[in-house]
Amino acid sequence: MANKNNITELIFTGLFQDPEVQKVCFVLFLPVYLATLLGNSLIVVAVSISKTLHSPMYFFLSSLSLVEICYSSTIVPKFITDLLVKVKTISLKGCLAQIFFSHFLGVAEILLLVVMAYDRYVAICKPLHYMNIMSRQVCHMLVGGSWLGGLIHSIIQIIITIPLPFCGPNVIDHYFCDLQPLFKLACTDTFMEGVVVMANSGLISIISLFILVSSYAIILISLRKHSAEGRRKALSTCASHITVVILFFGPATFLYLRPSSSFTEDKLVAVFYTVITPMLNPIIYTLRNAEVKNAMKKLWGKRNPETE
């Protein structure tokens, strides 16, 4: 089947057709991407050098920020540069690579969010055993498992996609490569491939969401036994994580757990989770966490000694 391919290049329709609107989008989205890189990089550096941020919670936060940097960089730079050109092209191999890394990093992020929920569960419900349960070795295994889970998921997706024949047309109705828009270009019936892909993505999302909801339900029930100050502190750390989970799973649920209807809707929702959400995560965690804010202030002070 692979020999039937006579398409080596794909053309994106993009987010909007109006050149003036595209220029406005460029002016808006470039600073957002730069802020994403800066904010998440600051968290990674702050956690790695700060003596006050060496707990498992911050190790997982640093890992999440690293995934956000990689995930955003898989899609956004190409999207931003395409806003300035009339014809937006990508090679078929480049398209498959973008699909592979976006799914790899996307699922790694989902699994990291589950790991972070487990960390909060252990910290709040089993505080006396926390350091024994969440040892350095266990933390590294959990993060490594998140990356491995994303890799296995992405390999399955790409193995399903590579054999498909693409013999025209070559216009993909999106601003980046994703499976459902690409499947519409295959010159064969892709119903079964679509079912397998949806089952693969949907199963991971549903199981992860169930674990997340269950973890926080148990946490909220156990908080009734804590003091008012203990509840306030626990809820403060959990609130940031819950906010990030909602921001991630909301758009993902809209896109992957329903039949595709309007690609215009899909593209607008996709902008939120590919461009906006990676920038919001470091802001959410920083604004609600005094230790992270203090570590970043110290880090910024070292970079700018003349301001002290």
From TrEMBL:
GO terms for cellular component: membrane; plasma membrane. Gene3D superfamilies: Rhodopsin 7-helix transmembrane proteins. Residues 39-285 form the G-protein coupled receptors family 1 profile domain. GO terms for molecular function: G protein-coupled receptor activity; olfactory receptor activity. GO terms for biological process: G protein-coupled receptor signaling pathway; sensory perception of smell. It is found in: Cell membrane; Membrane. Keywords: Cell membrane, G-protein coupled receptor, Membrane, Olfaction, Receptor, Sensory transduction, Transducer, Transmembrane, Transmembrane helix. It comes from the Eukaryota. Coiled coil: none annotated. The chain crosses the membrane at residues 26-50, 57-76, 96-118, 138-160, 202-223, 235-256, 268-287. It is a multi-pass membrane protein. SUPFAM superfamilies: Family A G protein-coupled receptor-like (SSF81321). Belongs to the G-protein coupled receptor 1 family. This is Olfactory receptor. It comes from Mus musculus.
